[in-house]
Fold this protein.
Amino acid sequence: MNTLFTVNGRKVRLSLHPGQTLLRVLRDNGYTEVKCGCEEGECGSCTVLLDGEAVPSCQILAMSVRNREITTVKGLMDMDGTSVIPEAFAETGAVQCGFCTPGMVLSSYALLKGNPAPSEEEIKLALDGNICRCTGYIKIIEAVKLAAVRMGKK
Amino acid sequence: MKKYRHVKYSEQKIDAISLATGEALFTDDFTKPDMLYLAVLRSPHAFARIRELDDSPARELDGVVEVFSHKNVPRVMFTTAGQGYPEPSPYDKALFDTLVRFAGDEVAIVAAETEEIAREALNLIRVDYEILTPLLDYSKALNEDAPIVHPEKDAKAMIPVPFHPEKNLAAEVNVEVGNFERAYKNSSGKVEATFTTPITSHCPIEPHTAMAYMDEMARLVIISSTQVPFHVRRIVSRILDIPPGKIRVIKPRIGGGFGAKQEIIVEPFVALTTWRTGRPSRLRLSRKEVFTSTRTRHGFTITMKAGFEPEDGKINALSMEALENTGAYGTHSLTVLSNSASKTLPLLNKIENIVFKGKAVYSNLPVAGAYRGYGATQGYFAYGQLIDMVIGESGGDPVEYYLKWCIKAGEGSPIFRAIGEGTEGVEMTLDTVGLPECLKKGADVFRWQEKRNRYSGEFNSGRRKKKGVGLVCMMQGSAIPKIDMASAYMKMNEDGSFNLKVGATDIGTGSDTILAQIAAEVLDTSPDKFIVHSSDTDHTPFDTGAYASSTTYLSGSAVKKCAEEILKQIKKVGSEILEVPEKELDIRDGMVFVSDEPHRMIGYDEICTYAMYQRSQFQIQAFASHVADKSPPPFAAHFAEIEVDTETGLIRVLDYVAVTDCGTPINPVLAEGQVEGALINGISYALIEDYHFNEKGALLNNRFSRYKIFSAMDIPPVRVILVDSEPDPTGPFGAKSIAEIAINGPAPAIANAFAHATGKRLYKAPFTPERVLSALTSK
Ligand code: FES
Ligand code: FES
């Protein structure tokens, strides 16, 4: 079946089966920037923003969010021209394999929207649901700090 | 020291932005119309014989296209280890067998129109198992009455090495230098201890995934999340009897490997399905499958003995006896075993009498394989603690001790020759050893002396929380000498850009970037002039792959040679245009100029255009291959400061300093990133990671909520330092490797700090609160 959703600020028809998770529906409809690392709500690679809040899309029934704003990392690029976070990640060396990165970027964005100058502890807490095996998080935390400074200046 | 223009510079990773914005494609992001989805039926039993398998109910389900099992797939023995040919790992596996050897072993696969149908069909396959008594305790594998995991007659070793499946012996290595027994007997100081390391998971966040399709020329194309595309092609070709020329393997972006993807696990299934049905197919393992049925780190039990002089700690005799659990199949069993000795024992090379006895045994547990550190991680857990015990008994300071006894530049070790990759090793003297610099720098930054003195009385204080510091020193290698090969091809375009095609496999490490930097350094032009294309078996030359800390050193050398050849051609054309002999020409920023008259110059773009369209026309292009004669080790010194809560058994890392000598870091930020990632993985390994099985051998903690790995909240304060060390003369611009070494440090460094804090030893990793408490109450 086809249903209307709001993804990245646009109304789009997505094909789906009832009972499918938002992650499956997004990926099957070409939003492959949403990554699938576990489908159990435990890695954060499938993170999307729902009305601005970072959530694991693998734990959400697609049908239940028809009326919400869904944002993937590609959508973020259009919102207030926010390439600041991906750039901060790239510059600090926070991207290794990059599989966790779209999710990390979205969690960082959700954090910085609500808390423009987070402490290191607050950053760690905000990223706690996003696991990364490559970087040891050190440069990711650095990236979020850098992004915070830059977003604050804008 | 020479001033570089493009290496030793933290160039941004060329794919970073496309990854961070979700543009870059991973295997699972590719799709094809008409694609089939695969699901794998796995054995619920740790050890069982399949009496009967009936797939007809599954075939009747609407949407099921094929079911594969031992019934319709010919038996070809192979190893899933993605190693050079002939592999040092035994051929002890068939794609489908009637004997299943661990809970999670493959029984059949279903190819269906949707993922859901494929999974549903698994329930319809009827399998009648004869359940056998499993071998779950690998320490009993060599007992007379142990169940035999590989009773089949067609398992075989591909190189002449001890292989006795009839005794559960997957591999064996015995080496002696000097005479251990005599020297041990004559030593007045003696220590002995047994250390155990856990079975753990790599946890790349991208699960193992492969897809296949037939191209318009009826060739099989495999896209795979692999570290070893060329080995995938060779092995799939052999198992399915398809000529290599009919197979193309493409590596897109890879979501981490750490050794887990140096295994040919999922590719044969998609290849088989597509080759037989003609339709595209895809298999993405679930996280549970990644935990259970891909590969793990080999668990080891290592007993070490040292005979030494109590006055100065001089070790006369050292023995290491290792028992390695390879699980149900012997992939990497021999080489990981060898590396547990060959990467540790040369470190203190003045020890004259050394014996290593290693055995790798089968069990009905998940399959072990390559894992970052590759045996050295397990080896250093034992070695790093035993040396610390000797130092403790002889009353010295660890920093001074290592400075005195560690291998130095210009020296070798008989171990290099004695232990290779299954065969004899390669003799070498080391051109550079940056360990003394690492030790001095680390001791200074960490404030080693001060902290060590401050905590020296902790162990017999009555305090609940005790603090201590520990040190460990390490070496690894850079590629496998005289075995591994890398190659590169480069051609020039008329805007002065270059296509750089390498077999090297960037799995997130940044190798595409650093290879461009190496080429840029040779040709003195900007790294963004290089269009890097890596790992496509049709379009890039051969490379053994991303393993054994080899890419920077080996593939980097191939790229350097290739760029040097290009440079000759550029100068030749330049000399023709400028009418000046080549030897009077120099290069700078993508220009060739006359050394004495720098205003006479010509750009690379014009040179290429001239060569393409004007006189003595030719394509400026080159290729190069590289095999190394040596494997220069990177060195590291790790310093840990911890606090032990003697009531809860919790260990808190208060400070951790990791200092590494990797020769010239081609890209310091990326090199640091390698250390940081390996380090946090290593601390997580030391403190929390471990597989738990039920009494029937099924894995209990097969998801991230039960198999915890460190998240951002868990990381302790760590400081990563690359020392400004001597460039290695054999590496590209002096580079040695860096990807693996750091993972070996945390377990022994923290254990040594624990001994300093409490006076007790942790012989078993990970250091769970229960183990800590029981160590504290031990005698
Ligand atoms: S895929 Fe959703 S949390 Fe892992
Ligand atoms: S960069 Fe690889 S998992 Fe985070």
Remarks:
- The helical segments of chain A are 22-28, 73-78, 84-92, 101-114, 120-126, 138-153.
- Chain A has a mean pLDDT of 95.
